[in-house]
Amino acid sequence: MIDITKAEVDILVQLQKAETETVHIESFLNDVEKEKSILESKLTDFQSALNKLKSDFDLIAKACFDAELEIKLNDDRIEKSSANLKKANSKDYPLLQREIDNNKKRRETLENLYLKHLEEKESQEKVLKEQEQLFVQLTQQIRSEQENIDNKSLTDRERLAEHRVKREEIARTLNKHLLSRFNEISEASGGLAVVEVRDELCRGCFMNIPPQLYIEVRRSTYLIQCPHCNKILYHIETLSQ
Ligand SMILES: [Zn+2]
């Protein structure tokens, strides 16, 4: 049992007011941060999709380059065989001729492949450029939205700092046993440690407290917690104002 004076009940109620304000603003600012990070993840998602487009484009550009190189090597082979053909004897002639014919057919296949890759490369390049431009626009838009959010919540961040200072100032004037009990309950119940009892009803959990306990709360000579929700109870008569 912790003894308590009416003045201490006053301080507890003041501390609760500051705590409630602090928790309220903190929760609002948390939502603000969430809103900002949702915007940020939109940007990250877009960036990932863009990176995928870039790597697909790099692959098709490489395929184009390879096909072009292969055509050139094939042309070199045709040219070499044609030169050899001119000085070939009757035995080598048909072999070389067949080799040239085969490589010419191969050239057609390679050419078709190259054109297919080229077409794909050009279409991907177009999409990539459009998406890159969109990304620049989206980045500007999101940065500006985030800045707006920051500007709008600036006052709240200042208010939060003030309420935290106020809470600390009040806490310093409180008996350390009461303060540690207050902190324990507040932490366990999302920032609500001290509640009023009116007409035998706890305003924290809206359950009735036993009549004898109600009398004790009104007398307020020791710290009383709600038997249901564990919060510290006070009665309005106890307060000095
Ligand atoms: Zn209760």
Descriptive report:
- By secondary structure, the chain is mostly helical.
- The longest helix has 81 residues.
- The radius of gyration is 40 Å and the shape is rod-shaped.
- The model has no long low-confidence stretch (mean pLDDT 95).
The CATH top-level class label:
Mainly Alpha
Approximately how much helix is present in the residues? over 70%
Binned strand content = under 5%
Q: What kind of assembly state do the chains in view correspond to?
A: single chain
Count of DSSP-assigned helices: 4
Features:
Helix Hairpins; 4 helices; 4% strand; rod-shaped; binds zinc ion
What's the layout of helices and strands?
Layout: H1 6-86, H2 92-172, H3 176-188, E1 194-198, E2 201-202, H4 211-219, E3 232-234
Parallel strand pairs: 1-3
Antiparallel strand pairs: 1-2
Helix pairs in contact: 1-2
Zinc ion is lined by residues 202, 204-205, 207, 226, 228-229, 231.
Please summarize what this structure is.
With 241 residues, the protein is mainly α.
